[in-house]
Amino acid sequence: MAGSAKHFLGDGGTENGKDQGDNKDTDAELARIHAPGYVAAIDAGVMTVMASFSSWQGVKNHGNKSLLTDVLKGRMGFDGFVVSDWNAHGQVAGCTNESCPQAINAGIDMLMAPDSWKGIYRNTLAQVRSGEIPMARLDDAVRRILRVKVKTGVFGERPLEGRLELIGAPEHRAVAREAVRKSLVLLKNNGGVLPVRGSARVLVAGDGADNVAKQSGGWTLSWQGTGNKPGDFPNSQSIWGGVKAAVEAGGGKAELSPDGSFTARPDVAIVVFGEDPYAEFLGDRPNLEYKPADKSDLALLRKLKGQRVPVVAVFLSGRPLWTNPEINAADAFVAAWLPGTEGGGVADVLIGDAAGKARHDFRGKLSYSWPKRADQYVLNRGDKGYDPLFAYGYGLTYGDRRTVAALSEVSGVTNALANPDRYLIAGKMAEPWKLSLRDGGGATEAGAGDARSPGGALSVALVDAGGVQGRRAGLHLDRPRPGRGRRTAGRSQPPGQRRHDALRHLPPGPEARGPRPARSRQVHGQP
Fold this sequence. Notes:
Strand content: 15-25%
Radius of gyration: 25 Å
Largest sheet: 6 strands, mixed
Distance between the termini: 24 Å
């Protein structure tokens, strides 16, 4: 299998953290902050590198010969091939999706042209014949592609071809589970609440507890990672499933309760929550605050804490975020990232044996600095004024006795600034925005869920895209008319319109542009 390092170079530092944006770092900053990972990947034997949609100092990376050829292939010594992103060559100045000699001359060896391949093939041949693309450049690209194919055995015997039983094989899942164990980062463990005794009564709460889709994030089965059901992940294990198995093996009892309710008082509560799946520009954020307009996860943590139940927070995310209030509300806080299908790997570390002895210790260390404030958009070690909450390389083990003191809950931003164009988040109107339904009977403010104006002239219902890429998700505003629509739960709904209990799919923002528009961009300095 040929590994791929992506997306070259510097798209983790675009201005304002925008997908397909412009990185304005100096040469020295680009080399210090963004290049080292590629050097390590090349040394480890990675065979392909994908170029980024983004730009450096105003020049699209797909057309930047100094980066692709002089730096990557020259100074870094990369001898594999460089592949473009999804029609990204079409964004190079003077190019279209069907014609881009500039990208090939800059160092792109293989063009990803899923719906424009006929045109790009025809035009590339003509450009080579005319000399616009030198024959030597074409030969170099072909040589690099063939080299990778030879190294991966494409032209030889394929002993594993057709061995479908190897997909999800126990030994492969064991490696994935080990990776989960080793990636967990313990940020806080006040009072030594972790590891949890396997013989304890454990409450497992939060909307991420029994949710493999949320554990896996975007680009999982579907583009945004949404619309996926438990059955779409055969043989997978949620974090709840892993905790339940570990606790029962230790002689304890585990109870799943997403809302945190319980009848028998638990010895400890494990609350699993975090970012909903996203990909690409839908992951863009105005700041680093975790769900600024939806504090339901924080309320759950505080509710359990107020009931004097020791709380372990397991945070699912693709990047460090400002979570000071959530960290304060928990006795222990674990950055679990996106563990995918192997939720048991989380339980391996959190749940000890019957006596409470750890079965596996924490080994993960932060590979990105954790923000102290939500406005710390650029937070790189070595920068002037570097002041993170948890520094690069931080990560506790069970042998540490560090107590994390109460953190400031002043985010450094306001919701008014945080949501300049995001009106609806997670099925709720985002501050400072409000939605009012007004008719002759007066006005009603629509907060979360469905609503109707006092006289019944207007109604609003939450809808989603049903997991289908390229469709808009949001609020459906309906004005009932005689003989039109159908009644559902006392609210008017047009024929064929699906209703859901929550807006679970595309957050507000740009409408999806077809099935696969571009690559992911997150916040400055985040993975």
